[in-house]
Design a protein that fits this description.
heterodimer; A: alpha/beta; Rossmann fold; 6-stranded mixed sheet; 4-stranded antiparallel sheet; 10 strands; 35% helix; B: alpha+beta; 4 domains; 7-stranded mixed sheet; 21 strands; elongated
């Protein structure tokens, strides 16, 4: 049921919002360092699958296993702790905290894990340098462009050395040039750090950066290369 | 035909340049339309503003009703008072077909006053107090609705025992001071002038009430300023609810060609609509709230709905001032916002807030007070400089606060994550936080100044009675009773549950017998009869046995001692009683002379003191019983047991609780007014802070969901909300304490008193602190709700 060597695997997930089914028997897996694109049309359940995999919401039924541990058996506090320590997130609009400077935003996951401010900001600056936004350290999100903000968001996702990054339409709000640069940086950084990436997108151009595609349609996930 | 070849519809012709006035009206109208038809979000924002303004307007209407409320209460009170001829004449009104005998039987029950009268008609057409149709038949009573309710409630058996009359009717509103008043009129067929009855010929007292002393006028002015200034600030805050969202909408308008002036006028139109709707809401809140006001009683204050009628001039002022304030506040607020067409709203705050124009405002207030606000004890008070000075100081503090908050938060660095989130948020937008807190600052500063004023006036209005409540807690007096009745009364008190000691004495006049010329003063002193135990409480008596007598001198008063000795001649007769009711008695020759001492009421006794074995107290004519009673407070309802005994002995007995401090009634009612008003204002401020907080949280809903996705703990965000509230409130309280102490010291100086206590600000600072906690606690449930991942579903 759980593919061998997988870091994160889901089986037969079902989730409904009211009477609307969002997931209807979806299964999924990702291996360490692997970049998997989750594709599908709007309303197909891509984001719901991502939120379930990340432990942000709990499915109505089905199992999710992360590094041998059953996610649905964990308490809310345990799942929160897991998200702090092992997961990173990139959203469509960056969703940086507007009142914090860029470097403080990148350092935030580390600080939530209890790292001292100076050490956290030092690490944050290193990631920002790698994502080519180290000159934005003292600027607030409102003062930077969309592409820059998204790179800051990628740096934030990577800063706490996660095992999995969940990226929900990370280039959806960017022009193609900026979008491609963000994807290059994200996937390169993830691969070099052996971080798995679950990439939700509906753009084939973005999905091209992945190692494998999974298509979600009507709440069911279909692995394009492996039978899951 | 291609699309390019197709004939496109022509644009309508442009109208000629409209006049400036019509452009303004058009833009205001557009703003009103945005506010009224802005979809769900727009309506929520408009409703928030309207509810906020409405609450403020309701409070202002309430305040503008106070003059009518007081007049109406006073008129009813005067209408049921005895008319001047009978109430203040030395003798009773003449007996007639309409005259009535009555005795005041007012009592206290569980710290509430139960006013009452025993009545007996002399003829067939008795005069009646307002609110009743006839004198109650003997052993029946008519009661106020509140008293009826109290008597019907279980657990009030002791009160029913005290008022053992059958209820036969209800007193109408016209006969009551307020709906919560406890009042009864009971009928009697045994009441006579001889046993305490007082004959009256009519009701209705047309005398003017006692005017307020100048010091109290200053207090009233300050109470009004202190209570109403935060309400004005609250209204100004409420019209800015949802400002961020509005700014974004205006940015969209800029994109389609609206210039900056147009956007400002549109924003003013939106604020105008919110304020007008707020006026309607306020009127509705007031009218609806008025219906329930009769059921609410705070610190013994309640009112009939009809009493709450706003003064027409004040109501008109509110109707004009509130929309005008809304428009002005919006226009001033918009000056610090740069709205650009590309949906970007930038705060034009690079230069920071300036101190130079803010600081002079409170200083000008202090100067006005110092130059024109002096109050002299016997001169009329000019209220205008005091009002203007206090208003300038308080509003000046509200102006100083945003500068101080900005200056302080910009210096804050580092700290744990919740602290960092809070301080960074404040650095980005300290204005909203300052606005929410400015109400607290003004209210607390005003309250501190008032407390200082109250404290400095304390000695003028609170008299130390000299009584010692540790020796006795209750005192009762019955006049002109037979000695037999007096001794029986004392015994009944001794037998009452929970009574430890009764200092019960029978007192009568004692005079030197003889014939005196008209211009000659008859040597007279008092005779006090009691047990040795009682007499020891009244004089410094050493050895005492039943049958002993004493001549008692007032300590340190030689003249009065000599006067006592003129009457109390050892071995000689004295005449006891007065008028026709006298008896002669010989003061034993071996009576020692001792010094008097203060009784628990603080009164010094002297004259002749005799034990019950020396003179038969039952035969003393024209006696007064004085009983001072010490009780065991561990016995439940002991006070009510003692009062029941007093009512049983003599319903007209004057029975009081012994207190070491006696408060002036007017002073006390102003203090009560302040408590009632301050509670309402602080609740309003808490509500305002809560709305601002919730608005901020709503704006950040998606961000909160993202933070949840990171695994952020609830506690982290909870603490950040707390710090975000606490930092401005602490700064606001610092301003309030400094400003309040300054204003208070100036006011105290104006009434030529000294500041009695500089530490009076602690309780108010504590209230401010409690507000922070309250608002934070109330913000947490919605924060928890918003920390759900649902916010991410829009991604």
């Amino acid at each position: 049921m759980i593919p061998e060597g997988s870091l994160l695997a889901a089986h037969d997930l079902r989730k409904t919002y009211g009477s609307t089914p969002a997931l209807d028997g979806a299964s999924f897996s990702v291996h360490p360092g692997e970049v998997v694109a989750v594709m599908g049309p709007s309303g197909s359940g891509k984001s719901t699958l991502l939120h379930c995999l990340a432990g942000i919401i709990t499915p109505d039924s089905g199992t999710i296993t992360y590094a041998g541990r059953e996610l649905s058996a964990m308490s809310d506090a345990e799942r929160s702790a897991l998200r702090r320590s092992d997961f990173g997130f990139v959203f469509q609009f960056g969703q940086l905290v507007p009142e914090l400077t860029c470097v403080e935003n990148v350092a935030l996951p580390l600080r939530l894990n209890g790292v001292k401010r100076k050490a956290a900001e030092r690490t944050a600056l290193e990631w920002m340098e790698r994502l080519e936004v180290d000159d934005l350290g003292t600027k607030r999100p409102g003062e930077v462009s969309g592409g820059q903000g998204q790179r800051v968001a990628v740096a934030r996702a990577l800063a706490a050395s996660p095992k999995v990054i969940f990226a929900d339409e990370p280039t959806g709000a960017l022009d193609s040039l900026n979008g491609e640069r963000v994807m290059e940086l994200l996937t390169e950084a993830a691969r070099s750090a052996n971080v798995a990436v679950v990439l939700v997108t509906h753009e084939a151009r973005v999905a091209a950066y992945s190692d494998r595609d999974v298509t979600v349609r009507d709440g069911r996930a279909r692995d394009m290369e492996h039978a899951v | 035909m291609t699309l390019l070849e197709e004939k496109l519809p022509a644009a309508p012709p442009r109208p000629a340049s409209p006049s400036r006035g019509s452009v303004t009206l058009r833009d205001l109208g557009l703003g009103i339309r945005f506010a009224a038809a802005g979809g769900r979000e727009g309506w929520i924002r408009t409703l928030l503003t309207a509810v906020g303004v409405g609450l403020g307007v309701a409070l202002l209407l309430l305040a503008s009703s106070v003059p009518h409320l007081l007049d109406a209460r006073n008129a009813r009170e005067q209408a049921r008072s005895e008319n001047r001829a009978s109430a203040y004449s030395e003798t009773n009104a003449p007996k007639s077909d309409s005259s009535v005998l009555l005795v005041n039987t007012t009592t206290e029950y569980h710290d509430r006053t139960v006013a009452g009268f025993l009545m007996r008609a002399d003829g067939s057409t008795p005069v009646l107090p307002p609110g009743i149709d006839r004198i109650p038949a003997p052993d029946t009573m008519v009661v106020s609705p509140a008293l009826r309710e109290l008597l019907d409630e279980p657990g009030n058996e002791l009160l029913r025992e005290r008022l053992p009359y059958e209820i036969t009717g209800t007193i109408r509103d016209a006969g009551l001071r307020s709906p919560g008043e406890l009042l009864y009129y009971a009928g009697s067929d045994t009441l006579t002038p001889a046993n305490g009855g007082h004959r009256i010929g009519g009701y209705g007292d047309d005398r003017q009430g006692e005017p307020l002393p100048p010091l109290l006028i200053v207090l009233v002015i300050m109470v009004c300023v202190v209570l109403l200034a935060p309400v004005a600030i609250f209204i100004a805050t409420a019209v800015r609810f949802g400002g961020d969202r509005r700014d974004r909408r205006l940015a969209a308008l800029r994109l389609v060609g609206a210039d900056i002036r147009t956007t400002r006028r549109i924003a003013a139109g939106e604020a105008l609509f919110g304020a007008l709707l707020g006026l309607l809401f306020g009127l509705a809140f007031f009218l609806v709230g008025r219906q329930f006001v009769g059921a609410v009683e705070i610190w013994d204050v309640s009112a009939f709905p009809a009493d709450l009628a706003p003064d027409l001039r004040l109501a008109s002022l509110i109707a004009v001032a509130v929309p005008l304030t809304a428009v002005l506040v919006t226009l001033v607020a918009m000056r610090s916002v740069v709205i650009e067409p590309l949906g970007v709203v930038r705060r034009g705050r690079e230069r920071g807030r300036r101190l130079w124009w803010r600081l002079p405002v409170p200083l000008a207030g202090l100067a006005v007070l110092a130059l024109w606000g002096r109050v002299e004890e016997y001169a009329p008070v000019n209220p205008f400089p005091i009002t203007a000075g206090a208003v300038l100081v308080l509003f000046g503090l509200a102006l100083l606060l945003p500068w101080l908050v900005e200056a302080c938060v910009n210096r804050l660095r580092g700290g744990p994550v919740p602290w960092q989130l809070a301080t960074r948020r404040l650095q980005l937008s300290s204005g909203a936080a300052s606005r929410a807190v400015s109400g607290v600052t003004v209210a607390v500063a005003g309250a501190i100044a008032l407390q200082m004023l109250f404290a400095s006036m304390n000695a003028d209005f609170n008299r130390m009675t000299g009584a010692d409540p540790s020796r006795a807690q209750f005192a009762g007096y019955s006049e002109d009773v037979t000695g037999e009745a007096a001794t029986s009364a004392i015994e009944q008190f001794r037998a009452t549950k929970g009574v430890e000691v009764v200092i019960g004495s029978v007192e009568a006049y004692a005079s030197k017998p003889g014939d005196y010329a008209e211009d000659e003063v008859e040597p007279t002193t008092s005779l006090t009869v009691g047990t040795c135990e009682t007499l020891r409480e009244l004089a410094r008596i050493g050895a005492c046995e039943d049958g002993d007598t004493f001549v008692v001198h007032p300590p340190g008063d030689k003249d009065m001692s000599a006067w006592v000795d003129e009457t109390a001649r050892k071995g000689e007769e004295v005449e006891i009683g007065y008028g026709n009711k006298v008896m002669r008695w010989t003061l034993p020759a071996d009576s020692p002379t001792v010094q008097g001492r203060e009784d628990p009421m603080g009164e010094t006794h002297y004259g002749i003191m005799a034990t019950t074995g020396a003179i038969d107290a039952g035969k003393v004519p024209g006696a007064t019983i004085t009983t001072q009673i010490r009780v065991d407070h561990s016995v439940p309802d002991v006070a009510e047991h003692v009062r029941n005994t007093a009512a049983r002995i003599d319903p007209g007995m004057r029975f009081v609780t012994i207190e070491s401090v006696e408060r002036n009634r007017q002073y006390a009612s102003i203090q009560t007014g302040l408590q009632v008003g301050a509670s309402a204002v602080l609740l309003l401020i808490a509500l305002s802070m809560l709305v601002s907080q919730l608005e901020q949280l709503r704006e950040r809903r998606r961000l909160l969901s993202v933070l949840v996705a990171f695994g952020t703990r609830r506690a982290t965000l909870g603490w950040s909300v707390l710090w975000q509230t606490a930092v401005p409130v602490v700064l606001g309280l610092a301003v309030a304490v400094a400003g309040g102490l300054g204003l208070g010291a100036m006011l105290v100086h104006l009434i030529e008193k000294d500041v009695s206590d500089w530490w009076l600000f602690w309780p108010m600072a504590g209230v401010g602190g409690a507000l922070i906690l309250l608002v934070t606690l109330l913000s947490l449930p919605p924060l928890w709700r918003m920390m759900r991942p649902d916010g991410l579903r829009t991604e």
